[in-house]
Amino acid sequence: MKNILVPIDYSDATHPVIDFVRDLAGALNAEVHLVHVKEITAPAAAGAMGYGVFGLPEMMTMSSGPVTGVKTIPPEAPPGQTQRRKLKDWEKEFADAGLKATLREPTGPVVEEILREADRRPADLIIMGTHGHGAMYNLLVGSVTEGVLKHSTRPVLLVPSARA
Questions:
Q1: In which residue ranges of the chain is pLDDT below 50?
Q2: DSSP 8-class letter at 132
Q3: Which of 43, 83, 139, 141 is the 20 to 30 A CA-CA neighbour of 97?
Q4: pTM of the entire structure?
Q5: What is the largest CA-CA distance in the chain?
Q6: In what order do the strands lie in the sheet with 3-7?
């Protein structure tokens, strides 16, 4: 086992994964490939949140008009200083342990990009963190971990996040 792929999302679940991977990669003398996927989200079309979308064409004129009194959320900012600091800390941790670590930040659908990176390396193992969300959350929002588990042809090791 010489190549370990580690998808990271800068959440609280990432730090236990980094600690685990550092120890495992040290024992196996493996190279670590950190992957943070930048997902592109398409902007919603005008009126996409209105009644017209839900099969009520008579309300379409109402839903496609301008909405007043609603604040818009600015687009997500690029990785901030905190994320850059975390990356530098992780790089130093791996270097101090005598390990080689690389970072890739592809853009696209998260699950597809993780699996594509696993093929490029080629990864012998994918190690991911779990957030501990329930089935309802995964049904409504989806789960990157679940997508990787379903579609990966490589072994996937899950590291649970600490429970509060």
A1: 51-53, 56, 59-64, 67, 70-75, 77, 164
A2: -
A3: 83
A4: 0.72
A5: 66
A6: 101-104, 31-35, 3-7, 125-130, 156-160
- b/e per residue 12-50 (b: at least 16 CB within 10 A): ebbbebbeebbebbeeeebbbbbbbbeeeeeeeeebeeb
Would you call 79 exposed, middle or buried from its count of C-beta atoms within 10 A (0-12, 13-18, 19+)? middle
Go through the chain and tell me how many residues it has: 164
Domains of the chain: 3-38+74-160 (3.40.50.620), 45-73 (no CATH)
Contact criterion met (CB below 8 Å) for 105 and 38? yes
Single-letter amino acid code for the residue at 156: V
